[in-house]
Amino acid sequence: MAFELPARGVVLGVASLVLKEGATIDAALAVVRAAVDSGVLAIDTARAYATVDDDAAGERIAQAARAQAPSIPIITKAGHFRVASHAWDIDGSAARVRADALRSREVLGAPPSLLLLHRADRVDDLDASVRELASLRDEGVVEAIGLSNAPVELLDRARAITTIDAVENRLGFGVDAATEYRYCREAGIPFLAYAPFGGPKAEPLPTRVPRVAALAIARGGSVHRFALAAMLDAMPGAWPVIGSTRVESVLDSIAAGDLEVDAELRQAFADDLRSRGVGL
Ligand SMILES: NC(=O)c1ccc[n+]([C@@H]2O[C@H](COP(=O)([O-])OP(=O)(O)OC[C@H]3O[C@@H](n4cnc5c(N)ncnc54)[C@H](OP(=O)(O)O)[C@@H]3O)[C@@H](O)[C@H]2O)c1
C-alpha cells in the first residue's frame, strides 16, 4: 500500500515529547490531543523515542492519537534504539529491522502506516535491510516502507531493489540543502521534512528567515507560522515534521496550513533561502 497524505499540512513528531528534559506523559498527551483536534496529518515516532523504562514510549503516544482518530497515519522507524539514560545505538540489519517492525505492530495494535529505516546512512548492508523492509510490506507487517537520513546515492540504491514509499530527511529553513527533496519531488516520492525549524537548539528562527520574520511581525503573525506556510507553498510534495512540545506552539504551527501565502511572502521566503545558499 502506498503512503499518502493530504496535499497540504504538517506532521507532528513526538521525539521531544518523550526525550525532552522534564517531559511528562500528561503534557505529551495534551499536545497530541490538541494536534489531532486541529487536523495534524500524521504522527511521527520511532523505536528510538524511548525512555529507559519503556522501549515504546513514543509509539504509545502515537497510539493515543490513533485511539482519538483511528485513521490517522502513524510513521515509525526501525534500527535505532535507546540503550541507557544518555545512550542510543544503531543496528539497521535485516534481523533488527524485522524485530523492530514486529514490536511496533504489537505496540500500535495494527501495522504502522509507514516504517522507515531510521539511519539509512549508518547501515552496513543497505541492500539486505531494504529487501527485508520490502518483505515486511509484502507480508502486511507494515503498510509502507521508506528510508530516513538517506542521501541521493542511497535512495538510488534502494529504489533499484524495491519501491520506496516515502523519505524522511532533515530540512530546516536556511540550514539544510534541499537536494533530497528535489530528488523525491521528481520521483513522486512523499518527502517528510523533519526539524523544519532546525530543532530545539537552532539559532533563533528570525535570524535565519529575517525577511519572512519582518513580514510576520508587520502583519501581527507568528514567524514560525509564516515560515511554515511559505514552506508548504514553495515545496509541494514535502510535509514538515514539527517537534512542538507545547499546545500553543503546535496549534500555531498547524494553522500554517490555512495561512494564505501571497506574492510578498513567497518572495520573502525565496530571498531568505537564497541568501543562505539554499535553492529550491
Ligand atoms: N528521522 C530522523 O532521524 C529525525 C531526527 C530528528 C527529528 N525527527 C522528527 O522530527 C520532529 C521534529 O524535530 P525537532 O523537534 O528537532 O524540530 P523542529 O520542529 O524544527 O523544532 C522544534 C522546536 O521548534 C519550536 N516550535 C515549533 N513550532 C513553534 C511555533 N509555532 N512557535 C514557536 N516555537 C515553535 C518548538 O518549541 P516548543 O518545544 O516550545 O513547542 C521546539 O523548540 C521530531 O519530533 C521527530 O519526529 C526525525
Describe what you observe in this structure.
The structure is a single chain. The strands form 2 sheets. An 8-stranded parallel beta barrel has the order 1-2-3-6-7-8-9-10, surrounded by 6 helices. A hairpin with a 2-residue loop joins strand 4 (80-84) and strand 5. It has one domain (11-202, 238-246): NADP-dependent oxidoreductase domain (TIM Barrel). The protein is built from 12 helices and 10 strands. The radius of gyration is 18 Å and the shape is globular. By secondary structure, it is of the alpha/beta class. It has helices spanning 15-19, 25-37, 57-68, 94-108, 126-139, 152-159, 179-187, 205-208, 210-218, 223-234, 247-254, 263-275, and strands spanning 11-13, 42-44, 74-78, 80-84, 87-90, 114-117, 145-148, 166-170, 191-194, 238-242. The mean pLDDT is 96. NADP nicotinamide-adenine-dinucleotide phosphate is lined by residues 13-16, 44, 118, 148-149, 168, 172, 194-200, 222, 224-225, 241-246, 249, 252-253.
Write the layout of secondary structure elements.
Blueprint: E1 11-13, H1 15-19, H2 25-37, E2 42-44, H3 57-68, E3 74-78, E4 80-84, E5 87-90, H4 94-108, E6 114-117, H5 126-139, E7 145-148, H6 152-159, E8 166-170, H7 179-187, E9 191-194, H8 205-208, H9 210-218, H10 223-234, E10 238-242, H11 247-254, H12 263-275
Parallel strand pairs: 1-2, 1-10, 2-3, 3-6, 6-7, 7-8, 8-9, 9-10
Antiparallel strand pairs: 4-5
